Amino acid sequence: MNQEETLKTIEGLQTIETVAEALNIKKQSALNLLSKLKKQGYVATTGGRQQKRLYKITVRKQRKRNFGMFDIINKYSPTKLAPWYDHQVHGKYGPEEALIDAIQTQSFRVILASMRLFNHITNWSKLYKLAKEKDCWQKVGALYDVARLYFRAKKMPAYYLKCETEKWQRLTQLKKNNFPEIAKKWHVYIPFNEKDMGEAS
Amino acid sequence: MITYEDQMSIFGLISKEISKNIECYAFGGTAMMFYGYKDETKDIDLLFEDEASGNEFVKVIKNLGFNEITLVNIYIPEKLRKKNVPRMFKREDSRFDIFFKKIFQTTISLRMKEDLYAVHDFKGKNSLRVNVLRKEFIVLLKAVTERDRDFEDILTIVKREKNFDWQYLIDEVLWQYKHGDSWVLLDAEKMIRELKKYVFVEEKYLKQLYAAG
B43 vs B25, B39, B88, CA distance in Å? Predict the structure, then answer.
């Protein structure tokens, strides 16, 4: 059996015993094989010490990942997202950038989960600058005001809390009349209702 | 040859030099390296939908010492008679194949754009966003470009992927054909016929191509 066939046979999450059984080899031989494959980048391990060691085996090489939008949101939000593509950023990336990227997706679930990031924003001027570049400051403002009603969020300096445009924008495809006062203040249609927010908190 | 590490360094460097945010689509060997199918490639294949972004990218790689070279001997002559041929830039062993708007006659469809495998943002002074296409699209575009070793790469992907979605690829071929790519049926049919010598591909997929043509 060549390496490609071996990888296909044992692809997935395995323990040392299941690898030995699948390939019909001794445990020590399985260990040697996994060690070789790990050096080549086909195996990643988790566990060890008290926990059972698990081997994640793939037919493709597993590259070292950089954090992206989904990683930042999943780190801070109790609502976890299943990424539908692998987003990675090579360079400086934090909650400010992730929040803007989340708004750009126009995805209901991503934006809802990203509202938790307001509690981790430290650089409001950076957030303002990034939002202005993407013409979405009014969306950030509206989300902030809604988030403050349900979650803990860091306080935004008052001079940022103003809408500078009369043009109405949508966060997603939905054009709903939720949170009418906030929507009117920021000229943004808010797709989430109180039930959604309740579930998210 | 360009290694994965070289590729990441080049993209990082470019992001420091560009004067505005740029977005492009990666396919070919570049996309295969992002996937982890291989460790090195002959060329970095990129497509720019926005011509101004493409020109800015070209300006930066020229400043980094890449010189424009001829396409002859890389692509087959029939392909070079078409519109939307790439521009190629070389420096030592590294080469960029830059496409604008289309890959010969093949466009980046809405499905290609929405169903990405990965998005890599390189943050320098400005941001370079590299959208990596799904494996089915990489295979399709390799069938379209038909360069030396493209078929080997197709075989690598198809052999390694247990869940290669042939129907997804055929649907895209038919969409491209309906939207003006008169070559795509021939390219896909030729590729599948060749692949059948090495891997099992159900006849029904070829039948769908014949029915469309």
Answer: 14, 12, 9
Find chain B residues with C-beta within 8 A of A7's C-beta.
160
- Token code pair at residue B170: 């055929």
Here the tokens at position B129 are 């966003």
Domains and their CATH numbers in chain B: 2-163 (3.30.460.40)
Pick the residue from chain A with its C-alpha nearest to B126.
A91
Looking at the partner chain, which of B8, B35, B159 has a beta carbon nearest the beta carbon of A90?
B8
pTM above 0.95, yes or no: no
Q: What is the ipTM of this complex?
A: 0.90
What pLDDT, in 10s, does the model give residues B88-140?
Answer: 999 988 899 999 998 888 999 999 999 999 999 999 889 999 999 999 999 99
Name the minimum distance, in Å, from the CA of A15 to any CA of chain B. 21
Q: Do A88 and B119 touch (CB under 8 A)?
A: yes
Domain residues for the domain of A50 are: 3-57
* Chain B residues within 8 A of A88 when measuring between CB atoms: 118-121
Which of A162, A154, A77 lies closest to A112, judged by CA?
Answer: A77
